[in-house]
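Incident log, support desk, overnight shift.

02:14 A customer reports that sequence design results differ from what the structure should imply. Their input is reproduced verbatim below. On-call engineer (initials T.W.) acknowledged and began investigating.
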């Protein structure tokens, strides 16, 4: 089953957009994928663990070092 995603409207200054767009291009990502990557990176830096679906369908904490 396809992953459901939440759509949001984000207003950012043009200079920040240009920086994110440039970074996305240099890392061969879309701007959307780059922003998601940066948000996940920021959460990890704050010690917030990513949730992934377990075999029972229940969310579980992602194991460090797993792929």
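02:41 Re-run completed on a clean worker. Output:
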């Amino acid at each position: 089953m396809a992953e459901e995603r939440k759509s949001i409207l984000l207003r950012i200054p043009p200079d920040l957009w240009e920086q994110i767009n440039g970074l996305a291009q240099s890392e061969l990502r879309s701007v959307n994928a780059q922003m998601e990557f940066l948000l996940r990176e920021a959460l990890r830096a704050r010690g917030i663990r990513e949730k992934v679906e377990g075999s029972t369908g229940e969310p579980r904490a992602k194991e460090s070092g797993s792929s």
